[in-house]
């Protein structure tokens, strides 16, 4: 592995660990599991020699880091069955969830999985 490839892999590894620390702060068990899984995945990919496959793996690591940074929020239990969600508007994506708010029409399939979802069985 060239020095440039090693540096980019190490940068992706560090970014992923930083994203995990932010996303799972205060949850030691989940943070430890995420770190172990990240290490396992990077060690498994260390033997990849094909440049295209290596680029795909680095892009996947980048995508996972972005997902963790923007979409994972923590909820802390306050009282009986009351949770406070810790949302950082500068970091998290906030959507309006209009599709979720629409009333359910029996027999009407709501596409949820993108292209190819039409072949899934109806519920």
Written overview of the protein:
The chain is mostly helical and 123 residues long. The chain has a domain at 3-85. Helix content is 52%, strand content 9%. The chain is built from four helices and two strands, in the order αααββα. It has helices spanning 3-23, 28-45, 51-71, 98-101, and strands at 74-79, 82-86. Strands 1-2 form a two-stranded antiparallel sheet. Strand 1 and strand 2 form a beta hairpin. Helix 1 (3-23) runs antiparallel to helix 2 and helix 1 runs parallel beside helix 3 (51-71). The radius of gyration is 19 Å and the shape is extended. The chain starts with a helix and ends in a 22-residue tail after the last helix. The model has no long low-confidence stretch (mean pLDDT 81). Interacts with RIP1. GO terms for molecular function: protein folding chaperone. Keywords: Chaperone, Mitochondrion, Transit peptide. It is found in: Mitochondrion matrix. This is Mitochondrial zinc maintenance protein 1, mitochondrial.
Residue fraction in strands: 5-15%
- First CA to last CA: what distance? 49 Å
Structural class: mainly alpha
Count of helical stretches: 4
Strand order of the largest sheet: 1-2
Using the CA coordinates, give the radius of gyration. Answer: 19 Å
Low-confidence stretches: none
Number of strands: 2
How would you describe the shape? Answer: extended
Q: What order do the SSEs take from the amino end to the carboxyl end, as H and E? A: HHHEEH
Largest sheet: 2 strands, antiparallel
Helix content: 40-55%
- What is the average per-residue confidence, as pLDDT, rounded to a whole number? 81
